[in-house]
Amino acid sequence: MARRGNLPHNLTPEVATRNFIKGINKGLLKTFSKMGISTLQSYRGAQVFEAIGLNKDLVDAYFAGTTSRLEGIGLDVLARESQMKHEHAISAHHGFETDLATGGSYH
User: Fold this and answer.
1) Angle formed at CA 18 by CA 15 and CA 20, multiple of 5 degrees
2) CA–CA gap between residue 43 and residue 57 (Å, rounded)
3) Dihedral sign computed on CA atoms, order 34, 52, 67, 70
4) What is the pLDDT of residue 83?
5) Angle CA(54)–CA(57)–CA(75) in degrees, nearest 5?
6) 61-99 pLDDT tens trace
7) What is the separation of C-alpha 102 from the centre of its chain, rounded to a whole number of angstroms?
8) Residue 45: which of 29, 69, 65 has the closest Cα?
9) How far apart are CA 71 and CA 54, in angstroms?
10) pLDDT average, residue stretch 46-54
11) How far is CA 71 from the centre of its chain?
């Protein structure tokens, strides 16, 4: 955003990066607290979730030990979707085109 000039003049890329990290940390803390997780260490490896919509190979490779009863997409589809969103994010935009597509009916 800094390279495109989309940041306010008084906001440096360094400050924007710090603000982003602070926001992510606050969001994670809020999520963890709602799940009853008090520290990051207790979250790591806790397996408090189930993978839904990911195929067995992907779950076994990146989420070892995670339950996954409903299979779905693989790494190739995730990579393709990520690349498409990245290309959209760095392309030139015109006013109304600044929001990323939700990617489906549920979000």
Assistant:
1) 110
2) 23
3) positive
4) 95
5) 60
6) 988 888 888 889 999 999 999 999 888 878 776 656 556
7) 13
8) 65
9) 5
10) 80
11) 20
Token digits of residue 47:
């397996």
Query: Which residues make beta-bridge pairs with 73?
Result: 54
The three state secondary structure string of the chain is CCCCCCCCCCCCHHHHHHHHHHHHHHHHHHHHHHHCCCCHHHHCCCCCCCCEEECHHHHHHHCCCCCCCEEEECHHHHHHHHHHHHHHHHCCCCHHHCCCCCCCCCC
For the chain, how many residues are written? Answer: 107
Q: How far apart are CA 26 and CA 28, in angstroms?
A: 5
Global pTM exceeds 0.70: no
Q: Residue 107 above 60 pLDDT?
A: no
Q: Which residue has the higher pLDDT, 27 or 88?
A: 27
Neighbour-count burial for 76-92, b at 16+ CB within 10 Å, e otherwise: eeeeeeeeeeeeeeeee
